[in-house]
Each structure stands twice: as C-alpha cells, then as structure tokens.
Amino acid sequence: MALGAVGAALALLFASASAQAVDHAMRLQQIIGSAKIAANEKRYDLALQKLRALEDGVAQWREHVHRAIAEAAEAEAPAHAAEESEPPEPSIDFEVNVTFTPPKCPRKSMEGSVMKVHYVGQLVKTKKTFASSFHTGSMPYRFTLGSDEVLGAWNEGLVGMCEGERRRLMVPWTMGYGAKGDKGVPPYSDLRYDFELVELNNPKIPKAKKSKSEL
C-alpha cells in the first residue's frame, strides 16, 4: 500500500466523515506518520509493522462506514413508514340536515332529476370555502341527480328535495375527494356543503300501456 495514496484517501475521508470516523482517521494518519519516520530511519521492519497496522485500521474504518450507512438507513425507515401509514379516520359522519323547508312542495327530486342549485363548499377543518356557485356570477349549478357529474354524496344527500328547500351535507373524506384531494381540497379533507334548490325538472315517466283486457 503506497503511503501517499493512503494519505490522500484519508484526507478525503477526514473531510466528509462523522465525528467518530474522523477520530479513527486521525489515528490512521498517526500510523502513517510513524511508518514514514521508521522508513526514513531505515527501520524497515518497524515500517512494515506500521503498514500492516494501517491496513488493519483501514479495514476497521471501512466496517465503521458500512455500519454508519446502515444506521442512517434505519433512521430514515420510520419516516418512510409514517408516510405509508394508514389514512386518518374521518372527523365526521355523513349527515343530511334540512335547514329550510318551503311551505309547498309539489314535487321532489329523484334519480334522473335535473337540478339547479346554489351551493357553498367548505373544508370542515379550516372553514375555508373551496367551491361555490356564487363564484360563477351567481349562476346556479346544473346537474343530473344520480349521474357521475357530481360526488356520490350529492347523489345520496339531495334525493327528495323540494324547490326552495335548503340542506347541509356533512361529507367525510371517504365520500368526498379521498386521498388525492382536488383543487382547493387537500387530501383526506372532510367537507361541508350548503345547498338551495332553485329549480327542479323531474324525468318524465311513461304511462303504463293498458292491456287488451282493460280496453
């Protein structure tokens, strides 16, 4: 092993290693110094002995570095485990609350109804509004009940609604935007929606044909 090459390698290791490894590197440098002195004094047996000690020291240092790398990997493992941990429990249950009922209700919403609603969507945790029909110039939002145009929570919570009726839906993240979230909605967000049904058009149900016996 060339003393110059070993010295250069130790200099690099000294600059980048941990405190414990630096102490070890300093001891190796001392061995190099002793070997140089012995060689200059032509005490070659002692110089060879120091070189063997140096080789043993480098091997020990290598083991230390491998051990330090393994410990660092173990330290990072809990952080990765936390990232991959199970999703949080919703802070609310799904709820449908009627906040206003009009005096007359000639018809109610059903699957297939075309509904126009004003609505405001808020994050339960921060009460921040993330969506609203009033953001579109106060134009009500139009959709078909039971379709994939809206969240399943809407399809479930807005059945049997009258024109002029108001409802509040409490939507757990499992029925909202889930683990991915959406624009303005962080992952695992529980939601609150306030609705007012302003216009309702129910699907036409064809009349049953009379049988020949009824004619």
From TrEMBL:
Pfam families: FKBP_C. Residues 112-201 form the PPIase FKBP-type domain. It catalyses: [protein]-peptidylproline (omega=180) = [protein]-peptidylproline (omega=0). GO terms for cellular component: endoplasmic reticulum. Its EC number is 5.2.1.8. PROSITE patterns: FKBP_PPIASE (PS50059). GO terms for molecular function: peptidyl-prolyl cis-trans isomerase activity. This is peptidylprolyl isomerase.
